[in-house]
Write a structure and sequence with these properties.
heterodimer; A: 287 residues; mainly alpha; two-stranded antiparallel sheet; 11 helices; 72% helix; B: 241 residues; alpha/beta; Rossmann fold; 6-stranded mixed sheet; 4-stranded antiparallel sheet; 26% strand; globular
Chain lengths: 287, 241
């Protein structure tokens, strides 16, 4: 009886990871009203970055954050400055086109550099699991995913509420004209926000690399998860993203247990469709 | 007196409508210049041009001897030009203090400590200090107008553009606004003030600029300008003898 708790608990833990996958996408939408279709590729790029450092230096995947995160921050800053900032005032389509193009370029660049082979960021954490009251097992790596994910969201919340950069980001997303009048340079703020958003993507990329295998074209799969998370939770809402991650994770694993593992993804998207029908702005989203 | 702002043959039209047409005037240091004119006379467009939200088709804007005609809004803010809106535009999800701090940090280029001090100072001045931790969303209209002014002041301006701050206020509230504006001038802030309320325009500004169809209709001492026949005709209406 109690063993049926297993998919529930693992779903919640996995949901923490899903939330980090979605938060960058949600953030960019909340701030610029734009959708970054290259989000998944930036995630997987970070997985490969981590792999390179892991193989070169023989360090733990979590330690590669030290190198991966600054590198990916700079990349995000430059992408926003030299690509996205040029088309911000031209509606949503150019941004979509550019980010889609970027995702194709990144995907193929990774294919060239790293071959289409499946990779994983090997760590002993991935094979350990905790026996809970002799009833069921929780994989340690899921626990790590959840804790790191929770920390990332908490830290992001603090940055947005307590730092001057966070205020500038919120001011610019609230009222762009008024923000400009207060001396805020929106393009710089956007570039910094993109840097932060890709950092969250990179963290999720490394976690994904430790938990599952990844390929150069894995980004699309995670972009869809990110969409699922932010649609369920509500675009642009931080607590909503966390909740969205948990709901998607739980519905996948619990659904998988009930209707069979092959239909795990389907059960997640059924919940997604239900939310879209009943509350299109997302559970914690605003109209 | 030295000249802080020079507008030279400024023109801006929307489609075929000339919102501001071939307009020239000067504003001296520490002056309060009132701007009046019927609706659609181009007053707000003029403010948008000076603050940099829109760019003119021709003409020049000189601020403190620098040509700022094509400078971006946030740069002009950092140079010392601030404006308020007729309809207040606070950042609704932030507290009053956070709203004001954003201006001090980004517009005023102040450090953490200096900006806090500056903000407390301007909050005292505009009478919002006791409400500094309230969310901007929850403020009533008068306080929102106060916040609008406080935010602008926090950026440490030398030139302040005020767009109809007294509209919708009671007479005693207008008195208070006049008091605040005069005290700002004493602090060395030059003020351009668009207003519809005649009582305020008679007693506030040192000089008055009357606009009609984007052009300068009259310019000079408030009493003289308001008494001139031309202004009566266009602005106050024929029937008001």
């Amino acid at each position: 009886m109690l063993t049926s708790l297993e998919p529930l608990i693992n779903g919640i833990l996995l949901g923490g990871l899903y939330a980090v996958i979605g938060i960058g996408l949600s953030m960019i939408f909340g701030i610029m009203r734009q959708v970054n279709l290259a989000h998944g590729e930036l995630m997987i790029l970070a997985s490969y970055f981590s792999l390179v450092f892991l193989q070169l230096l023989g360090i733990h995947p979590l330690v590669t954050f030290l190198f991966v995160l600054p590198a990916i921050f700079i990349l995000g800053y430059l992408i926003q400055t030299f690509l996205f900032n040029w088309v911000l005032e031209k509606g949503m389509e150019p941004y979509l086109m550019i980010s889609f193009g970027l995702s194709i370029i990144l995907q193929n660049a990774m294919l060239l550099l790293f071959t289409p082979d499946a990779r994983t960021l090997q760590t002993s954490l991935a094979i350990k699991s905790i026996n809970v009251f002799n009833l069921f097992y929780v994989p340690v790596i899921y626990l790590v995913d959840f804790v790191v994910g929770f920390l990332v969201l908490g830290l992001l919340h603090l940055i947005m509420k307590k730092t001057y950069l966070g205020w500038a980001i919120r001011a610019a997303s609230d009222n762009l004209t008024a923000a400009r009048l207060m001396g805020i340079n929106p393009k710089r703020v956007y570039a910094l926000a993109m840097g932060i958003a890709v950092i969250t993507a990179a963290i999720s990329g490394v976690l994904v690399g430790m938990t599952f295998t990844f390929y150069p074209h894995s980004g699309t799969q995670y972009l869809i998860i990110a969409f699922g998370v932010v649609i369920i939770g509500g675009l642009g809402s931080l607590p909503g993203t966390f909740l969205g991650g948990l709901i998607l994770g739980v519905s996948q694993l619990v659904g998988g247990r009930i209707i069979g593992p092959g239909l795990q993804l389907l059960s997640g998207y059924i919940i997604l469709l239900i939310v879209l029908t009943i509350r299109p702005q997302g559970i914690l989203g605003r109209k | 007196m030295s000249c802080i702002l020079t507008i030279e043959k400024l023109s801006k039209s929307f489609g075929r409508v000339a919102a501001v047409h071939d307009l020239s005037f000067e504003v001296s240091q520490d002056e309060i210049l009132g701007i009046i004119g019927p609706n659609g006379a181009g007053k707000t467009t003029l403010f948008n041009l000076i603050a940099g939200e829109i760019k003119p088709e021709s003409g020049k804007i000189m601020f403190n001897g620098t040509d700022v005609t094509s400078a971006q809004t946030f740069r002009r803010c950092r140079m010392g030009i601030a404006r308020t809106y007729q309809i207040p535009r606070p950042f609704v999800n932030m507290t009053v203090l956070e709203n004001v701090l954003v201006g001090a940090v980004y517009g005023g280029g102040m450090g953490s400590k200096a900006s806090r001090k500056k903000c407390e100072e301007v909050l005292e001045k505009t009478g919002l200090f006791s409400k500094r931790n309230a969310f901007a969303e929850s403020l009533p209209l008068l306080d929102r107008k106060r916040l609008e002014l406080t935010k602008a002041l926090a950026t440490g301006p030398t030139l302040l553009l005020i767009d109809e701050v007294a509209g919708g206020l009671t007479e005693s509230e207008v008195e208070e606004v006049l008091k605040i504006i005069h005290s700002l001038r004493r602090d060395g802030i030059t003020i351009l003030w668009v207003e519809h309320i005649m009582m305020a325009m008679k007693r506030g500004p040192d000089r008055l600029l009357v606009m009609d169809f984007g052009e300068k209709l009259a310019y000079g001492n408030p009493d003289e300008v308001l008494d001139s026949e031309e202004v009566h005709k266009v602005y106050l209406g024929d029937d008001e003898d």
